[in-house]
Amino acid sequence: MTQLLPALATLGPREAELPWPRHRLDGRGWLGLLAMLAQEDWTLVALFADGTDIHLALRDESDGTQGLVRYAAPSRRFPSVGRVRPGAIRLERAIRDIHGIEAEEAPDLRPWLDHGGGAYTFLPVEGEGVHQIPVGPVHAGIIEPGHFRFHANGELIVRLEERLGYTHKGIEALTIGRTPIEAARLAARVSGDSTVAHSLAFARAVEQAVATPAPARAAWLRALMAELERIANHFGDFAAICNDASFALIHAHATTARERVLQACETSFAHRLMMDRVVPGGVSADLPPDAPARITRLIDDSERTLAYLYRIYESKPSLLDRTVSTGVTLSELVHRFGAGGFVGRAAGRAVDARKSPGYPPYDGLEFDVPLSLEADVHARLTIRIQEMRQSFRLIRQILERLPGGEVRVELPAGRGDGIAMVESFRGDVFAYVRLDDAGRVARYHPRDPSWFQWPLLEAAVEGNIVADFPLINKSFNASYAGHDL
User: Fold this and answer.
1) Rg from Cα positions in the chain
2) CATH code assigned at 342
3) Sign of torsion over alpha carbons 180, 272, 480, 91
4) Residue 225 pLDDT > 80, yes or no?
5) 240 shares a domain with 364
6) Are residues 350 and 236 in the same domain?
7) Residue at which a domain ends, from 71, 104, 137
8) Fewest beta carbons within 10 Å, which of 279, 306, 316, 381?
9) Interior/surface letters 137-157, b for 16+ CB within 10 angstroms, e for the rest
10) From CA 87, how far away is CA 92, in angstroms rounded?
């Protein structure tokens, strides 16, 4: 396997260091990169446009290095990455809809975010007895909108195709010209259930752009918020998966446990979801004096509740019959799409941004990254359980070692580029920020982990019965809003 950074150096000159080295590629270099991507095992991290430039972020899992390439496309066309990396297909469709830049010879030329371009053509399926089941975009529950087109033979799913984009908010365009503090409020709303993670990625990217790190105490408080966010969401998913398997007892108790976490967040950070608490330069407020003791009690209670509920889960054959061997994701697809979080780790992909590339204070904390190989609904649920146990462990370390000092610094205004990767409860969040001479946002691109998880859901449901789709879907719990931007 060829190492990423030496390979990029052969394709074009390095034009910036950034947190990730950036190389400028001409047409020949870009085609050379595509040829390498067809052979090499590098992870596609992000693909986005900035003006008429195309940026491609890559990661080499073998040595933990990252690199960024820039390709100028003044003709508003570029050779498709999706031809060799399927994870890029939806990203290319979004680039065309938002920026009007088209990927040449792309596998899929249909619009993605633009729902006003006429009738949408779903992929065909042929065969005797095959019929279509349209679901959504409006659903029976209070959830985000998304359309699912099933092709089924009897109850067996032959193909699922998703049509999303209904929650497109134009966040990237809305941030342009705003100060980092103003833009941070938009970053916090990319996906509400991951508000801490997206806020942290944006803030770290801005801080790198101006070469000014947040104070140590702020970094530790950010990690505390991130782990509380992870626990709350995992409890909620545990509840919802069991509810879709018609086991209401765990649903009720796990939902209550999630509510206790949210209440503790409100009393400790003055907001249930901790929205707008992570800002460029640090955090917006310090912990109240009694918060550490309150959070410690919460963690103790949550740990006991989790152990009790998981014992019940493991003891119910009728429940395990619904989750074990249901909705299996092929490990080669998970690896090829670069899926992270519980979707990736349930299929043996040992990737966690807290470990690599790493960021404070996780580089000084002890925790494990749980793995499984079964890649089914049960494995994705079990990974969540194990991750919560690690979050309990992390929070205890944070509270025991929380440093003193200020929680926020003023950032200097000026031009710069920054990149950050942080670990949300779903997986790795990527953020790119470019500031202009006045220190205002000239470009912000967030990449939610859901971009690489939604396509895997389509593959995971094939061969399962239609009645198991809600269960499989909830075991992924990919974000609509984070995917649609």
Assistant:
1) 22
2) 1.10.645.10
3) positive
4) yes
5) yes
6) yes
7) 104
8) 316
9) beeeeeebebbbbbbbeeeeb
10) 9
pLDDT tens digits, 110-152: 988 878 777 888 888 888 889 999 998 988 777 889 999 999 9
Work out the average pLDDT over 82-98.
95
Q: What is the DSSP string of 219-281?
A: HHHHHHHHHHHHHHHHHHHHHHHHHHTT-HHHHHHHHHHHHHHHHHHHHHHSSTT-TT-EETT
The predicted structure's pLDDT at residue 126:
82
Among the listed residues 52, 63, 67, 78, the one whose alpha carbon sits nearest the alpha carbon of residue 5: 67
- Domain closes at, from 84, 104, 124: 104
pLDDT of residue 262: 98
Amino acid at 69: V
> Model-level pTM?
0.96
Do the Cβ atoms of 111 and 93 come closer than 8 Å?
A: yes
Q: Domain for residue 324, yes or no?
A: yes
What average pLDDT score do residues 425-441 get? 97
**What value does the mean pLDDT take over residues 464-471?**
95
Look up residue 354 and give its DSSP letter.
Answer: I
Residues 55 and 204 in one domain: no
Residue count of the chain, please give it. Answer: 485
For residue 471, the model assigns a pLDDT of 96
DSSP string, 172-193: HHHHTT--HHHHHHHHTTSSGG
> Quick one: residue 316, left, alpha or beta (phi over 0 = left, psi -120 to 50 = alpha)?
beta
| Residue 157 within a domain | no
Would residue 113 count as lying in a domain?
no
For 396, the domain range is 171-484
Listed residue (106, 164, 108, 114) closest to 139, CA to CA: 164
Q: Beta-carbon neighbour count of residue 243 at 10 Å?
A: 19
pLDDT in tens, 389-399: 999 999 999 99
In a domain, 131, yes or no: no
Same domain, 202 and 316: yes
The whole-number pLDDT of residue 155 equals 92
Instruction: Specify whether the CB–CB gap between 15 and 23 falls below 8 A.
Output: yes
Residues 98 and 214 in one domain: no
Mean predicted lDDT score pLDDT of the chain: 95
The number of distinct structural domains making up the chain is 2
